[in-house]
Amino acid sequence: MLLKNKVALVTGGGQGIGAGIAWSLVREGAKVAILDRATGPAKELVDEINSSGGTADSWQVDVTDYAALNDVVGEVDKAWGSIDVLVNNAGVVVPPGPFMDSDPADWDHILDVDFKGVLHGVKACVPRMLRSGGGAIVNIGSDSAKFGEPGIAVYAGAKGAVNSISKSLAKELAPSGIRVNVITPGIIETPMIDLARSTPDGRAMIDGTVSTIPLARMGAPREVGDVVVFLASELSSYLTGQSISVNGGMLMIG
Fold first, then answer.
1. Is 141 helix (H, G, I), strand (E, B) or coil?
2. Each residue of 48-66: pLDDT tens digit?
3. In the chain, which end has fewer C-beta atoms inside a 10 angstrom radius, N or C?
């Protein structure tokens, strides 16, 4: 097992991509702390994982509240003895539409969760990783930050900020043995995609995007989770500051 006895923390881990990540980490032997604002799905996932022979527990927390998040990270550290892997996955999006029709209150919400939530996770976990001699941080971005997407400009901007801060943190934390990488999913079948489909503009955007994917389908959360395992494990020991697209070939650069 690639992550045997490692402690991994996944924000927004109760459903969608987060749940796929949790399962992939558990299959490779990690103990997984699932942090989510919604308690129901997270507890159901924990029960399923533990019934299957894995080890997981859930904590209710909002990643926009740094003090609360730091307290929860401390509880995980106390319960399991370390924080080895942090996956900053928590994210939100509002129904797509023209930027000029968007609500500044929605801008704040997206930036608070999708960007500042990552900062909060890093600030809470890095001191614990340092005590253990290092660790791996995997931030979940989005391919929309690489190629732009009308209708979700603020979301794409927030995810672009995740890409930028991850490179800076990778350089800053490398001497301490902490690697920082980004996964930028394309179209993955999740509740967030269902939300995007709730408007005519959203449906058109999703259907149009899927039609351009060389592998001719959406991805599954597990397919993101398996890349997280790679980036969290010693298989990627010489990778830091990288951004890996998981998108069925939709975006090819280089």
1. coil
2. 999 999 999 999 999 999 9
3. C
User: What pLDDT, on the 0 to 100 scale, is given for residue 147?
Assistant: 84
Q: Measured between alpha carbons, how far is residue 248 from residues 16, 44, 94, 121, 211 in Å? A: 18, 30, 24, 29, 11
Give the pTM: 0.94
φ and ψ at 33, to 5 degrees? -95, 120
Does residue 155 carry a catalytic annotation?
Answer: yes
**Confidence (pLDDT) at 220:** 95
Directed axis angle between helix 39-51 and helix 16-27, to 10°? 20
- Domains delineated in the chain: 7-246 (3.40.50.720)
Q: Give the Å distances, CA to CA, from 242 to 26, 32, 141.
A: 24, 24, 12
Half-sphere exposure (Cβ direction) of 230: Cα atoms closer than 13 Å: 15
| DSSP 8-state secondary structure symbol assigned to residue 139 | E
